[in-house]
Amino acid sequence: MSDVTLLTANLVIVVLESFLYGIYAIMASCALYFMVSRHREHLNGTSWFPRSNLLSPVALGAQALFITVSVHWLLNVSRVFVAFHHWDDGPGPRIFYSNFSHITEILKYGFLVASFMIGDSLLIHRLWVVSGFRPGIIVFPIITLIGLLTFSVGLIYQLSTYTSNDSMFQAAYRRWTTGVCICCLCTAAYTTGKLCLIALPHRLKSTHSCKVCIWYKLWSVSRALESFGVTSLTTIVRIFTDSAALFATFSLFHLVSYQCGSNIQFIVLDCMPAVVGISNLLVQIRLHWDLTQKRAASTPFMTPQLRIPLDISVGDSQVGSGSDGMKTLYLHP
């Protein structure tokens, strides 16, 4: 879509990223409430969980990710005021958004890269834990993470030398941007595929190859579930929330739009930090929900009882007499 200008794209970015950030902030508040509740139970000695998780690597990573995503969103919002308030009307905003060497643009890309790094690190950590702490399974994503850092540093440095005669689609910028896209996509696709294979039942794993595309796998698994008598798509939902399928989709869309030379890639790119945060919080909230359900399932059901004197009539209610001159009234739901 060559008719999408940089000014239009940046205005759309503010709206879409604000919407996604609002969803992310609500989910972050829920996750924080869950963590604080578990921490209080741990301090009171009534926690069903073995330890507090406020200072765990995942919690610290989630907090750092929230900071980077928030700063990235604030920079995009502040750039609107800078473009329309501190610049003259007319071509001023267009010139401002065309200057990729501006300090706010450099900072924005820096926090964007930091969000990618933290999000990929959390995803790799989850894959490592789910796989039973096998180091061999995370070798490839660690290599792509190092590649992401390398290409990101090169891209930010190249942006600092940007001039009015340059374009983000020139070869000097294309190699760094393409490298960032490919590294993010490889990390997300690899971890998604591995988590999918780990999450599948053993009888379903034998019917699929490790090299099958993740989306074909999800489609084929949904068909296989029917043959095994599973009527719901709970497994598919768990695979989607536990993996980076959402982030992988955005990464692929950004790569395609950038290679096509469309300014839509700026919209997708600036929305990706919030998507990284949402993907991470989907895992955290789903895990807490599972732990809560497991806790409820392990707690035996206690029928509420009410002790009353023998001389009080309770009609046809189910009662039992005790040796202490009291009747027990069983309160069934």
From TrEMBL:
Domain of life: Eukaryota
Entry keyword set: Membrane, Transmembrane, Transmembrane helix
Parts of the chain that traverse the membrane: 12-34, 54-75, 106-124, 136-157, 177-200
Name of protein: Uncharacterized protein
Organism: Mycena venus
